[in-house]
Amino acid sequence: MIHPSILEEAAAIVNGDKQQQYGHPSVHYARVAAGWETIFADGIFSEERVALAMVWFKICRQLHTNKRDNIVDAIGYLLTADAVIEQQRKAMTPVNPLDKPWPTWKIDLPNYRD
Prior knowledge:
Blueprint: H1 4-15, H2 17-22, H3 25-39, E1 44-45, H4 47-64, H5 68-91, E2 105-106
Antiparallel strand pairs: 1-2
Helix pairs in contact: 3-4, 4-5
């Protein structure tokens, strides 16, 4: 069972500090969705792309509120993307990223913009 205090704490953060720092979630999530639509447009979900999606998430936050934490986190996600790429480079022989020996997930996404 979830302790009631954790719900109260989360609600206070979401409705307080985070709302003041980043605005209404729908505005932030709309920005994030626009970028993620591009990153995952072909329906391929890989470790590298998830890291890039998180970089975009931090960029969207930075667009609303200039905070060093956003920049540090974005750089951290880029560094983790580089670590993933380096690990895959050592393990792979194919050059074509669509012929990766590591797992990727292809999901057909609906187009909500039509």
